Amino acid sequence: MPFYNLSIAPVPEDIVEGCIADFVTSEGSWRWNLFGHHIPHNILLMIAAVKPPDAHSGNDHFYWAHSPFGYFTAKSTYQQLSKNDLSHTNPCWKNLWKWKGPQRIKMFLWLAGQGKLKCNAELVKRHICTDATCPQCDGGIEDALHTLRDCFVVNRIWRELIPSSDYGSATNVNAMVIDVKSRAEEIHRVFDIFDINKCKRVEKYFGWLPPVWLAYKLNTYGACKASGLASVGGLTRDAHGGGIKGFDINIGMCSITKAELWGMYHGLILAWNKGIRLLIVEVDS
Ligand SMILES: [Zn+2]
User: Which of 47, 147, 167, 273 is surrounded by the most beta carbons within 10 Å?
Assistant: First the structure.
C-alpha cells in the first residue's frame, strides 16, 4: 500500500513518487524526519520493526507470506482462502479426513455428511424419480437418515453397536458417529490412566552451558506484549561466563518470531563489532 494512502497530513509532491530506498539513509537507517510526521504512530512502530532495504543484501525476490518458508504451496493458499470459512470447523470433517480406510468408503461418508447420498428422497428432489419410498422396508421415506439409521435392515446392525437405551438419542448421522467415537476414546483414556508407566514424570535440569575454549556464546531473547510492542535483548559470554556484553532494545511492533530474529540479528552485530569470530548462538525459543 502506498505511504500516501496512510498519511495523516498532506504529502509533499517531491516524495509522493518516492520508492522505499529514498526513505533510507546511507548508513542503513530509516529517514524518520522525511515521513515520520505523515504516518500514524502505530504504523511507525510496525515500520520500525522492519529492517530497511540494503544494497549489499542481494537482489529482491518474491516471498509467499502465507507459508513459513516463503514458497508458494497449494496448502497454504487453501488455508488462507478458507480461514474465514467456519464450515470446516465441524469435527465431522476432521474425523473423516483422518479416517484410515478405503478411499471409496471415505467418499461415501463424505457424501453422507454433505447430505448428497443418492437415496430416493434425494432423487425425487432432483426430478430423477417420483417415488421416495424405501424399497427395503416399504415403510418410510428413503432419506439419508432412514438409509443409514432408521430402516429396519440397518437398525439391527446399530443395535449390536449401541445399547438399546441410548439408541435413537442421536439426532443425526454426524452426532451418532461422534457418539460411538467418544465411547471408544473414553475406554482408551481409562486404560491410559491406569498405565502408570506412561504418566511417569521425568525431571531434567536446564541451565547455561559454557561454550568450548576460546569461543563465546550469545544468548538472545525476543518478547512481545499483548499490545504487539516488542523488545529484544541478549548477551555474550566467554567460556568462563565472563567478558559479558549485552543489549536491550525496543524494536516497535511485530510478531514474536520476528522479535526473536531481531534479537539474534542485534546479538550478531554486537559480537562482530566486539571482534568475536568464534560464536555459538542460542535463542530462548
Ligand atoms: Zn427402509
Answer: 147
